[in-house]
Amino acid sequence: MKCPRTGVIMKEVAVGHFKIDICESCAGIWFDHLEFEKFDEAHEKTGDEVLKLLESIPKFPLDLNRRIHCPRCIDAVLMRRFESPLKKIALDECPSCGGLWLDAGELAEYRKLFPKEEDRKKASQEFVNKEIMPLFKKEAQKGEDELKQAKHIAGMFRLVCPSFYIPGKQEGAAF
Ligand SMILES: [Zn+2]
After folding, report:
1. How confident is the model at residue 136 (pLDDT cuts 50, 70, 90)?
2. Is 13 in contact with 49 (CB distance < 8 Å)?
3. Alpha carbon of 111 to ligand 1 centroid (Å)
4. Cα(103)–Cα(27) distance, rounded to whole angstroms?
5. Is residue 2, in this structure, part of any structural domain at all?
6. How close is the Cα of 67 to the center of ligand 1, in Å?
7. Could you read off the pLDDT of 104-130 as tens digits, one per residue?
8. How far, in Å, from the CA of 50 to the mean position of ligand 1?
9. Which ranges of the chain does DSSP label H, i.e. alpha helix?
């Protein structure tokens, strides 16, 4: 399997019960669907092992903004998956097979940011409460205001021109 960043053939390594693919050129890692969660928490030894494997690989200048393709599905473009409200880490996920690509340094950073699964859940809940919910509320409020205004205008016309509201008697009756 080729590295989605560098095109170099990746090395398959057995860590614990898993086989993951690492790129010895850019220090990126490929996790198949659901494998990543066996490596992501700070207390998991599997993650330590992977980090040790990657330690000796020299840093490679990479254009992380470039969209990359799934090394398994080839045609599928990986989707950026932001893991923190501050968008500190963006993992690349395949929408087709669910595999996950981590660029150099992202595993270490991820484990530091979210030592446990609860930390990640808490962070994303906080993000939803703080950033997403106010947007929804604002939209809902806007809808209500517009409805009120529409009713108000309709009411005004009802007084001025009642015959307009007799159903079926006029062209393009709106109410
Ligand atoms: Zn894929």
Report:
1. confident
2. no
3. 23
4. 7
5. no
6. 14
7. 989 998 888 888 878 878 877 787 787
8. 21
9. 45-55, 106-113, 117-127, 133-160
Question: Binning pLDDT at 50, 70 and 90, where does residue 86 land?
Answer: low
CA 94 to ligand 1 centroid distance, Å = 5
Residues 20, 101, single domain; the answer is: yes
> Are residues 17 and 45 in contact, defined by beta-carbon separation less than 8 angstroms?
no
Number of domains making up the chain: 2
Domain span holding position 74: 11-115
One domain for residues 109 and 136: no
Is residue 5 in a domain? no
CA of residue 52 to ligand 1 center, whole Å? 26
**Residue 33 maps to a domain:** yes
User: How many angstroms does the Cα of residue 100 sit away from the middle of ligand 1?
Assistant: 8
101 with 74, same domain?
A: yes
Distance 26 CA to ligand 1 centre (A): 19
Q: What separation in Å is there between the alpha carbon of 91 and the centre of ligand 1?
A: 14
**111 and 125 part of one domain:** no
- Beta carbons within 10 angstroms of residue 149's beta carbon: 10
Q: What are the tens digits of pLDDT across the range 3-45?
A: 999 999 999 999 988 999 999 999 999 999 999 988 888 888 8
Q: Are 66 and 135 contained in the same domain?
A: no
Give the pTM.
0.69
